[in-house]
Amino acid sequence: MPHEKSRSKKRILLVDDHPLLRQGISQLVNQQADLTVCGEAEDRAGALKAAAESQPDLAVVDVSLKNERGMELIKDLKVRFPGVLILVLSMHDESVYAERALHAGARGYIMKREASDKVLDAIRCVLDGGVYVSKSITGSILNKFTGGSENSRSAEFNALTDRELEVLGLVGKGFSAQQISERLHISIKTVEAHRANIKLKLNCSSGADLLQRAIRWTFQTGEI
């Protein structure tokens, strides 16, 4: 009987590199009559393994994981497990990341600063087939379709690709071209090409200007 009851609950996979955060969300979810946590992971490899083993209905994923980007995990999950819904729960600025996450395959984006009942609302909304984003993000997306103006901060960085945004974040954290090359498993030449594209797209006049913009951006979006 208890087994049948647990099977009727929607199964949630938690993917975040902060154990205390996973513990808190797990306790919150497991207190619900209709939800249960079926697995946890801190990185991409662990998440894909857990998804294969636990067969979740929904994966709750952060956009930054242990030395990795959650955006790539979202894309991987959509390809390997198309039946698994994805909700992003992150500290990172929704004005920069929410639309990118939706394009990557997520069905919702909510920030960690939101109250626990809002997190549960987001989980249930996505499980019910809906899309969950804040009212401000909904307005921003609608403005795009109707030709209105975008949020100034998000508009500034929307021209960057996901990889360029990743490089920008590492530049802002003080990583050298060599360190970025090693971390992202790309050549130094490719790193420099990304930096040149970022400078052009953000209208940076010099490498020093790029560094200042990168540092400011990492603080604004919670990257540091």
Tally the helices: what do you get?
12
In spatial order, strands of the major sheet run 2-1-3-6-7
Q: Percent range for helical residues?
A: 55-70%
**What is the first-to-last residue Cα distance?**
48 Å
Tell me the count of domains.
Answer: 2
Radius of gyration: 19 Å
The low-confidence runs, each spanning 5 or more residues with pLDDT under 50, are: 1-6
Order of helices and strands: HEHEHEEEHEHEHHHHHHH
CATH overall fold name of the largest domain? Rossmann fold
Shape: elongated
The CATH homology group name of the largest domain = Response regulator
Q: What structural class do you assign from the helix and strand content?
A: alpha/beta
* Mean pLDDT across all amino acids: 84
Which class of the largest domain in CATH terms? Alpha Beta
Number of DSSP E strands: 7
Q: How is the secondary structure organized here?
A:
Layout: H1 2-7, E1 10-15, H2 19-30, E2 35-41, H3 44-54, E3 58-61, E4 64-65, E5 68-69, H4 70-80, E6 85-90, H5 94-104, E7 108-111, H6 116-127, H7 135-146, H8 152-157, H9 162-172, H10 177-184, H11 188-201, H12 207-221
Parallel strand pairs: 1-2, 1-3, 3-6, 6-7
Antiparallel strand pairs: 4-5
Helix pairs in contact: 3-4, 5-7, 9-11, 9-12, 10-11
